[in-house]
Amino acid sequence: MRYFSKTVEVGNITKAAEQLNVAQPALGLQIRQLENELGVPLLVRHSRGVTPTRSGQVLYERACDILRIVENTKNEIMGFAGSEKESLILGITPGITNVMGSKIFVDARDALPNVHLSIVEEMSYILIEALERDEIDLAIAYEVADRPALLRSPLLEEELVFVTAPRDGLDANGTIEMADVLEYELVLAGERDPVRQLVVAAAERMALPLKVSFEATSVSMMKSLVMKGNVASVMPRGSVGSEIDRGLLAGVRIVNPVVTRTLYLVRSSRRAPFQAEAEISDFLFSMVDSFADRMGVLAHKF
Q1: How far is CA 141 from CA 54, 169, 296, in A?
Q2: What's the structural domain count of the chain?
Q3: pTM surpassing 0.85?
C-alpha cells in the first residue's frame, strides 16, 4: 500500500521507485500483483506517467487511512517505553531561521520536554520534496501547491522587499513601485524557486520585461552579488535582515502591486498524529507568532 500510494502521489512509476529506493521493475511488478489480487485495474498508464482509475482512487484514500493507523499504532506501542523521547524532524526555510535563530531550540526545550527536535533548513520546494519522501515529519514552507499527498494549513502572508546596495535617493522607510523594480538588473534564484515565480508572475501581469542578469544557487551568493552594487533583487526580509541592520544592504517595501507569499504548515496525509500533537502545534504556532512580530508590517497572520 505504501508503494501504491507513493506511485499515485508522484504520478510516475520511475520517479516513485527513485523516492522509495526500489528498482522500477520491482515496483511495477508489485502494482501488477496488487491489481491481479484485487481483480481490477488500479492505474491508467500513459506517456506522461500514471493516474489512478476510479478503483485506484478509492484504494489510495483507504491506503492513506490504513497507513496513518499503522503509524499511530507504532507510535502508541513505542510510547510504552516511557523514557523514550518522540522524534520530530522539522523543515524550515533559511529566512525563518535567520530571524528566529537559536530561539527555536531554546523555546522547543521548554515547550517540548518529551520531544527530540531536529531541524532541516532548506528552500521551500526542497522541503516539500523531502516531506513527500518521508525524510522529514513537518515543514513550514512557502507557496506550497495543493497536492493529494499533503495536508497544508496557511499561517501568514509575507511581503517581499526590493533589495539593493545602499545608494542615494533610496529611502529605507519608503516604498518602490513594482514597475520601477523591473527597471533594474536582478539576481534571482532558479526557476523552481517560489520567490522567482512570484516576481515572474507580477512582471507578466504588468506586461513588463524581467531582467535577470544572474541566477544564483544560494541566498548567500545572491546577497554577495547585490552588495557589489551591479544588480538588485527581490527577497524576503528575513533573508537579508542582518545585512540591512548593519547597513550592508538596503531593503524597501514594494507597492503597486505588493508581492506576497503564503507560509504554510505542511505534513504528509499519511502521517499519524504525534503523541505530543497538541504541544507540538502550540509550539509551532507560537514560533510563527514570534516570527510575524519580528517581521512587523511585512507579515499578516491568518
Answers
A1: 32, 35, 19
A2: 3
A3: no
